[in-house]
């Protein structure tokens, strides 16, 4: 059985940062929480990268896909198409919905 271990990293889009006044030269410390929240919504964030490892073999190296969001997603699903099990943190409630 092929198993895909993966995680995505997201960041706010420039548009969402601009709409919330966060592209100013001086971002105040209390705005750090807002940046975190903007990173967790598909409406205000984008995928920065996907880290993954596909087993077998058990000692397979962790790989990272980065670049344009659409290419990251396409490349990931091309790699994962033959996987039978997906393992990750909050994949049902966050990652796959993203």
Q: Would you kindly provide a brief summary of this structure?
A:
The chain has 98 residues and is α+β, with helices and mostly antiparallel strands. The chain has helices at 14-19, 32-38, 69-80, 91-95, and strands at residues 3-12, 45-55, 63-66, 85-87.
- Number of helical regions: 4
What structural class do helix, strand and pairing data support?
alpha+beta
Rg over CA atoms, rounded to whole Å, is 16 Å
- Overall 3D shape: elongated
**What number is the mean pLDDT?**
85
Question: Could you tell me the strand content as a percent range?
Answer: 25-35%
Instruction: Report the strand count.
Output: 4
Strand order of the largest sheet: 3-2-1-4
Give the SSE string. Answer: EHHEEHEH
Quaternary organisation of the protein chains: single chain
Biggest β-sheet strands, sense, barrel = 4 strands, mixed
**End-to-end separation:** 26 Å
Low-confidence stretches: none
The helical percent reads: 25-40%
Would you mind describing this structure in some detail?
With 98 residues, this protein is of the alpha+beta class. It contains four helices and four strands. The protein has helices at 14-19, 32-38, 69-80, 91-95; strands at residues 3-12, 45-55, 63-66, 85-87. It has a four-stranded mixed β-sheet. Strand 2 and strand 3 form a beta hairpin. The longest helix has 12 residues, at 69-80. The model has no long low-confidence stretch (mean pLDDT 85).
């Amino acid at each position: 059985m092929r198993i895909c271990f993966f995680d995505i990293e997201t960041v706010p889009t420039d548009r969402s940062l601009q709409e919330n006044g966060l592209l100013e030269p001086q971002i105040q410390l209390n705005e750090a929480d807002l940046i975190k929240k903007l990173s967790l919504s598909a409406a205000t964030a984008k995928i920065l990268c996907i880290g993954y490892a596909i087993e077998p073999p058990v000692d397979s190296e962790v790989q990272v896909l980065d670049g344009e969001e659409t290419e990251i997603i396409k490349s990931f699903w091309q790699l994962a198409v033959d996987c039978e099990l997906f393992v990750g943190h909050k994949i049902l409630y966050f990652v796959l919905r993203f």
